[in-house]
Automatic annotation (TrEMBL):
The lineage of its organism: Bacteria, Bacillati, Bacillota, Bacilli, Bacillales. It is an enzyme of class 3 (hydrolase). InterPro entries: GH, GH13_cat_dom, Glyco_hydro_b, O16G_dom_2. This is oligo-1,6-glucosidase. Transmembrane segments: none annotated.
Amino acid sequence: MEQKWWHDSVVYQIYPRSFNDSNGDGIGDLVGIIEKLDYLKLLGIDVIWLSPVYDSPNDDNGYDIRDYEAIMHEFGTMNDFDQLLDQAHARGIKIVMDLVVNHSSDEHAWFAESRKSKDNPYRDYYIWRAANDDGTLPNNWGSIFSGPAWELDEATNEYYLHLFSKKQPDLNWENEQLRNEVYAMITRWLDRGIDGFRMDVINLISKTPGLPDADVAPGALYGDGGQHYVNGPRIHEYLKEMNDASFGNYDVLTVGEMPGATTEDAILYTDPARDEVNMVFTFEHMDLDSGPGGKWDVLPFDLQKLKDNFTKWQVALHDKGWNSLYWNNHDQPRVVSRFGNDTMYRVESAKMLATLLHLLKGTPYIYQGEEIGMTNVAFETIEEYEDIEIRNMWQERMAQGANPEALLQAVHKKGRDNARTPIQWNAKQHGGFTTGTPWLKVNPNYREINVERALEDPNSIFYYYKKLIQLRHEHDLVVYGQYALLETANDIYAYSRTYEGETWYVYCSFAEEETTVEVAHDTTDIIIGNYATAPTNTDQEVVLRPYEAVVYRTE
Ligand code: TEU
Ligand code: CA
């Protein structure tokens, strides 16, 4: 496979609202990001993925875009953006932006036109339907943010489709003119000098013609429309067309956020010969702790399922496509709280999880705060949460008579605001994120967990991430080596990577007690480990301490 710059790159995701506030209004901003570029340079990352910074009424924190070519005024100006781009490039850091084109804001100029009349030239940019003859909604699909996926608009007495919030009407990709406008917009950003796109729910843009009703799961209020829009009928055609018309003409990174994409789908999306996208974000490992009732139906973590899933992806995409690797983003709880131990073994388990992910094959993504082991937050009341997904879900479930204590616990475990609390820079008020009042409360553990402390401690999680990033930059084995799962006890995840006659063995313990693993290789050359001393080992066995991670090299 032809080598690409994004093969050995590590990406750092910034959620600008929560990163760093430079002017005391409680909201992170572009100047705040510029102030921290040296920090990111020290960490050693290659690319920043910026969550949306476009003009938006913030119904979904910028994932509802009012103007694709203006900057959100809370975040700064286009001049600030150009500064950020220049300053990042001057440090050898690339910038990838978010592309949110499954839907726009209902305040976008296209939608303002579209809703005016049935014969408006922009009518067909969105998905409009009349009610059925019996007065019911056009179909039975539910919105991903609760309630039905249809909203009545009085001007024309028709419904528009919104897979997400009412303020996020879905764009109609069947309309060629709309598609061309999107490609032209992408091209203008690329000409501005950005280095690629993370493409929001891009595998949802093609819907089954006729928008048929979907199956209703037992106990569900609405049909699961996903059957008619996840990896829909024209998705590969649209992606190829987009690639040919825009980013395919530039040497940039594209990553498609793709809920419901299987390994078979991912191979089609990322096969370099097909010219669609470079890599996808799979959701499969993020869904392992969800029961049949969906994300709020929380199951205990099961390491065996994680091993099976990662192994399936590592093996399937080898030499066929390209993986992206992530534990965290702005939609997911903090990994150290989710799959590790965020109390007694916070530092050990955060480093162990980092080792596991960063030595796999694919492009790793670090979500802001992950590099200092930030944890989930547990607000005591639902009013302290800001996320529209949480708020809508709460309202719907309370109306159905759900138990508020149990639901609040599910929010503590899975709510998106876990990832969105402001970055804890130091032990000062509000963790040094702002001199004003933060838009979302800071996690109360900021005095113990913060960047300043991490930078002072040579054994911190931060410096461990730095080392892992360096390993990827220095060793082709980490980038291109072939993966194999090693059979071990239940609480251990062990795998090897092999490249040009060299093999690395990665052992990761999820146990809270010592665990002995049998080994069949030399154990003298340790590449990295998360304890200050080497584990007790012979050529036959290694005794792993709680949440220990260790990597051996053999030739
Ligand atoms: O997320 C898509 C998505 O599927 C999530 O909404 C996910 O299903 C949810 O968090 C899990 O319950 C993308 C963005 O990352 C997210 O922030 C946006 O809210 C969403 O699209 C709509 O743009
Ligand atoms: Ca600000």
